[in-house]
Amino acid sequence: MSSRIGYIAFNTFREAVRDRVLYNLIAFALLLSATALLVGQVSIDIERLVVVNLGLTAVSLFGVLIAIFIGIGLVSKEIDKRTLYTVLSRPVRRWEFVVGKFFGLTGTLVVNTFFMAVGVFVALLSVAHRFEKMDVPVLAAVYFIVLQFFVVCALALLFSSFSTPLMAAVFTFALFVIGNLSQDLRGFAKTVPGVSGWLANAIAYLVPDFSALNVIGQAAHGDPIPGRLILFNTVYALLYSAVAISGAVLIFQRRNLK
Amino acid sequence: MSAIEIIDLEKSYLVGFWRKRPKLALRPLRLTIEEGEVFGFLGPNGAGKTTTLKLLMGLVFPTGGTARILGMDMDDPRVKSQIGFLPEQPYFYDHLSARELLNYYGQLSGMPARSRSARVEEMLKRVGLSDAAGVELRKFSKGMLQRVGLAQAVLHDPKLVFLDEPMSGLDPMGRREVRDLIQQLRSEGKTVFFSTHILSDAEALCDRVGVIQNGELRGVGAVAELTSQSQGKIEIIFHAQKVPAGLTALGAEARVSGDMVNAVLPDAQQDAALDLLRREHIRLISLAPVRRSLEEYYLQKLQPAENRKGAVV
Q1: What local confidence, expressed as pLDDT, does residue B305 receive?
Q2: With contacts defined as CB-CB under 8 Å, which chain A residues touch B86?
């Protein structure tokens, strides 16, 4: 990996970490974990279920919001503010810039998720007083959430490479919602005959399968997450992200920076 | 070897919503800048100066032609390590300090870690920002940002420096500092290509200038030659309360300012005018041929519609 990608990634990380908006979102997520704790305490016998469900949903939702809102501005903000001019006038290739930006944001999200997940585990510890074997799937669920962030970041970058930040946010969020319903879409495709069914099936396979990356329910019940699923989801998320980033690079390579 | 060789570089954009049509931003441009030269690219706003710089920086892609920079093709990645660029009204990462920003750019330029820190401090000192080196850039004034911009442009000791409107938005002291920096670059043997519409700066700094208007190069010339061309007139200044009778008859245009008279007349009348002053026992202060200013050259090269705007002296 080019060292320039590392420098750009670190600078992106540093900029994001120093942005106060990020802390507001993390504070909201931790607040939601605390709320989960309160709700858990009044939910007799299902405290753990409520804490994991609400806590991880908060981590996922706020992480996706951060991924979208920072992701769409990663490149467009640099063009608008012309910070990109002084970067690209150096021996930096455009693809290195896009890839560096992607790693910077995903790195930021990994660190954020770590802190938000710590919040969830603290909440979990306070209702159960100790960690158990059934808490291991929660770690897998957190890992899958991070994989979701990778895909969302890549999509935000892709859409922002050819559209306005607002449209890029709309497209990315729409794909996130549709991707969470992709299993339902596949089920629907089987019930519809002809071209419509084929089309629904194609869309279901084309959109990112976020539903497969969502195992919060299973983790909340303490159901084990199969190793094969972890491997499959890892490969799937990385490949999907790589394709989206490649698309962003291809578009950005040809773009005139007016 | 030429520092920059622009060969029919051309740029057009597609405009219109439904029926796209090409709009020329830069007509085929042919221009050569020699090594060690300070070249001023003059023109009113929207003339094509920034487009040319963006093309050379690879920020926009040409629709025709090419350029060679320091003997290499403009697309050659090696070019970038030998050039520095200051964009117009530069803006940098808000949350970084000037020191962090320069360090980041040094990393991207491939400067070795050992020499980088020392060079960053040297540049901060050179542009007078040592005291504010740790302050976040969002707290910087426009003038301070411009200084950071200049520092980043020359940080990696490039052979060729492109400056887009480097004096724009600066107070007189800031302009003076930029002038000094450009002169220092010249003394170090660097090639400087800068765009401006401030003619006095161009006249003071440039070896040669090019005038561009509506995306078309109107003329190129050496400043020394352009401003040394005699207009066929002389200017005489002498002590007097009023214009002596007889001077007007020699075709002089004179004006009285306090106890001095400034008169411009055809150079063929020089001896006659001096004889007249001697006869009247008037003390002569100066006599000099009237030379063309860069402003006159600039206005002459621009089309009449543009003559009324864009020129700031």
Answers
A1: 52
A2: 86
